[in-house]
Amino acid sequence: MTSRGCPQTCTFCCRSMGQRIRARSADNVLAEIEHLVRDYRIDEIYFEDDNFTVDRERALAILRGIRDNFPALFIKFANGLRADRVDGEILSAIREAGGYWIGFGVESGSQRVLTLMKKRLDLDKVRKNVSRAK
Ligand code: SF4
């Protein structure tokens, strides 16, 4: 967990960490990864943030730090990234950091249902970013 909270208001979500974002700095996260790699020889990190890319610059700093300092590490976001909170640069950074798995929290293929659930996700953008990720 590199951050807690999500500012969105999807009606089905427990938002157990609250709506206010409390994020660790990139340096703090990278120091923990260094500790885990050095002392426990881990080879993979599974990120479980509610909304890892809500702060794009922080996410890029973490991903680039992993790429530059831990080239043998694998990472995954099976917990789900918002499909409208990624772009080509973020996806490339994930790949370069050893990313091999991204789960997008899409929830429904119906724009009407997404609106009813207050997911505020544009399915055209989802299609575009899934294609980019692939
Ligand atoms: S974007 Fe994800 S974490 Fe945030 S409220 Fe919606 S489902 Fe929950």
Q: Concise description?
A:
With 134 residues, the chain is α/β, with parallel strands linked by helices.
Walk me through this protein's architecture:
- By secondary structure, the chain is α/β, with parallel strands linked by helices.
- It has one domain (3-133): pyruvate-formate lyase- activating enzyme (Alpha-Beta Horseshoe).
- The protein contains 5 helices and 5 strands, in the order E-E-H-E-H-E-H-E-H-H.
- The chain has helices at 26-40, 56-69, 88-96, 111-116, 123-133; strands spanning 3-4, 22-23, 44-46, 74-81, 99-104.
- The strands form 2 sheets. The protein has a 3-stranded parallel sheet with strand order 3-4-5, covered by helices on one side.
- The protein is globular, with a radius of gyration of 15 Å.
- The two termini are 25 Å apart.
- It binds iron/sulfur cluster (SF4).
- The site of iron/sulfur cluster has 9 residues, from loops.
- Iron/sulfur cluster binds at residues 6, 8, 10, 13, 15, 50-51, 82, 105.
Unreliable stretches covering 5 or more consecutive residues: none
**How many domains, as an integer?**
1
End-to-end distance, in Å? 25 Å
Q: What is the CATH superfamily label?
A: tm_1862 like domain
CATH topology (level 3) name: pyruvate-formate lyase- activating enzyme
Reported for the largest beta sheet, the result is: 3 strands, parallel
Counted by DSSP, the helix tally is: 5
Q: Radius of gyration over alpha carbons?
A: 15 Å
